[in-house]
Amino acid sequence: MSKNQKEQNIILGQKPGPEMKKDATHIALIPCEAAERLLPGQHVSLFRGKIYTEKGKKVGVVDPYLREPVEKGERFWLFLYQHSIIGLRHEYEHPDFPNESFKESKLEGGKKISDSQLYLNKVAEKLGITYEKLRDLVLGYLDGSDNHGFCLGNDRLDFETGDSRLEFWNDMCKPSYSLFWEHFEKVEGVSITDEQKDEAYIFRCAC
Fold this sequence. Notes:
By secondary structure, the chain is α+β, with helices and mostly antiparallel strands. It has helices at residues 115-127, 131-143, 165-173, 179-188, 194-198; strands spanning 29-33, 43-47, 50-52, 57-62, 75-80, 105-108, 111-114, 150-151, 156-158, 163-164, 203-204. The chain is elongated, with a radius of gyration of 20 Å.
């Protein structure tokens, strides 16, 4: 963009006004697995790590450049909704799709902290508890000393979609393929089986 050219506020999904000129914009992408048959350009939802037409939270659209539908079990590029990501460095950050590379150390509160620890701190924050509490609950579940489930109440993460803290845990953290377990094993030095991960009864609602 030249110095004399003003930056345009491009909002995808809305028709451009007569003042808009040709431009380019970033779109965050992530490869996902289809849980059912999907159509190119279709608005889709995320649920338990897979993509559905209606089940779960709407997060983006199926690759609109595809020439044919995506069948169940196939992988495709998901175009995330504009302005939904929380950082962009060619490796972006999105609250529903945690990053896969956590190698460098960062500073938090004036001290160095591993990226795995930083990731776990963010998960705990989203659950509304401290990481120390999260660690004790997970370790208590693993050694059998705490199997009652910690009540997360009815607090909502997103009042528009109705997503709850418990749904965040069950959909994004609990499944055995979740990066949560990978980082927890690194930080705490424990080994956890896939069965233990998938059956992790650690949190409950206020019911």
